[in-house]
Amino acid sequence: ATIGDLRQIAAGVRPARLDDGLAAALRDLARSAPVPVDVEAPRERVGASVEAAAYFIACEALTNAVKHGSPSKVAVRAVRENGTLFVSVADDGVGGAVVRRGSGLAGLRDRVAAHGGTFEIVSPRGGGTRLEVAIPCE
Description:
This protein is of the alpha+beta class. Helix content is 38%, strand content 24%. The chain has helices at 2-10, 22-31, 48-69, 104-114; strands spanning 37-40, 74-81, 84-91, 118-122, 129-136.
């Protein structure tokens, strides 16, 4: 399901899961994950392109965590504050994630930059991975 969502977004199609808002879409994504995912997200809506970007970020980060990080759990947080949507995805996996040219993480960084946002990843070996993004939403 997650790969299908990623393909839809990559093709420029807004995922149907977002019709009910980012919080509902993220909870739905969490239910389909092979590891427990804790979700915290605002019920209030932001612009469609920001919601799609935030959802894509969560999808890609969750996919990377499961595929490369071997986590026992993942936390996805989205918080709207002072005209910015802050999104973080943190796992307790093996860490060591690096943004490389042509990688999914590089694509996320570029997507965030296209929205005028900031992208940071902290991933010490053995210490899990934390992706933090801030996207202007007003």
